[in-house]
């Protein structure tokens, strides 16, 4: 006599559990990968905003001060606080004083010193360095930082430390 069985066998339960666990682990791995990609995208966005910031500061200042912005060691060591701050309407500054303030404030933003938590920098780019060069009225701004994953370092300039994690954003502009 044949009896009909009802329910699932132990093997079927194990196979179902294996498929479920594999799916959950895949979702967790995908989330970790997305978070890494999101961080890299945020760093690129910050680099782009920093490059645009200094470009607008240069355009706002007198063209005679343009050559003063050229420097290849932004982010290496923060300069001293300028003697005269140009951050209020009452403090009218010369182009040279504005240049000193612009360079100081931009470098603070690059290294994240403008946002602190318990005296530690918590903003800016990871392993940041920036360089500005100019010829006549053409300006090249290079912002370098360290990414989370390794890539081929194919950039041909010397801004930042060459490595397989170096990322660079290069902005070329013309200033009247």
Describe the protein in words.
The chain is of the alpha+beta class and 176 residues long. The protein has one domain. It is built from two helices and six strands; from the N terminus they run αβαβββββ. It has helices at 10-60, 95-111; strands at residues 71-74, 116-117, 120-121, 129-135, 138-146, 166-174. The strands form two sheets. The protein has a four-stranded antiparallel β-sheet. Strands 2-3 form a two-stranded antiparallel sheet. A hairpin with a 2-residue loop joins strand 4 and strand 5. Helix 1 (10-60) packs antiparallel against helix 2 (95-111). The longest helix has 51 residues, at 10-60. The termini are far apart.
Outline the fold blueprint.
Elements lengths: L9 H51 L10 E4 L20 H17 L4 E2 L2 E2 L7 E7 L2 E9 L19 E9 L2
Antiparallel strand pairs: 1-4, 2-3, 4-5, 5-6
Helix pairs in contact: 1-2
Question: Care to give the gist of this entry?
Answer:
The chain is an alpha+beta fold and 176 residues long.
Largest sheet: 4 strands, antiparallel
Counting DSSP E segments of at least 2 residues, the number of strands comes to 6
The level of helicity is: 25-40%
Shape: elongated
Strand content: 15-25%
- Strand arrangement, major sheet: 1-4-5-6
- By DSSP (H or I, 4+ residues per run), the number of helices equals 2
Q: What oligomeric state is this? A: single chain
pLDDT < 50 runs, ≥5 residues: none
Give the averaged pLDDT, no decimals.
Answer: 85
Q: Could you tell me the radius of gyration in angstroms?
A: 26 Å
Which structural class best describes the helix and strand composition?
Answer: alpha+beta
Q: What pattern of helices and strands is seen along the backbone?
A: HEHEEEEE
> How many separate domains make up the residues?
1
